[in-house]
Specification:
5 strands, DUF6349, three-stranded parallel beta sheet, alpha/beta, binds zinc ion
Amino acid sequence: MSVDAAPGTADPAPSPTGQCVVAVLSWSHNPPMPNPPTVRDPERHLRYRSFCDGCGHAGPIRSGEGEAVEDGHDHAFPGWRGMPVLVHCPYNIDSSSKKKIAKWEADARRAYPEGWFERGGPVLEWRGSAGTRHVPGRAPGGGYAMAVVRPDRPDRPGAGRRPAEQPVQTSLFG
Ligand SMILES: [Zn+2]
């Protein structure tokens, strides 16, 4: 889809089975086990890959968790990279938090395609220099909150940058 699509009107392709999900497996890498070319950092001791419990699809082996999370979304939620990037979900810190979170969720549901979050789809969030991990369970339906580093704060190249070659769109609610 185009990033120019109006919020809420995107028509992402359905997942291969309609029941595809994102899970990430991790394990310790023991040299001299060989590394496939999809591993960016051979020195890291952990390896990751996405796995879909809906159809059995497995992604490539990675040395970064974020890459594996993105692989899983490419499989289960084609079109996720072009979804709107929202401000970070408010933290649950005081008595006013519930109301703020409810408003953020309502804004997110308006901005994303109908049924997207019910299928476990991710939400894309602007992040600063810290907290660039893709976080499971933080989207309105329980899917991932995908980190997108603000273009004016690219202080950690390679960590959570916008995972696409598309132009960065302005935040709808920021
Ligand atoms: Zn699948």
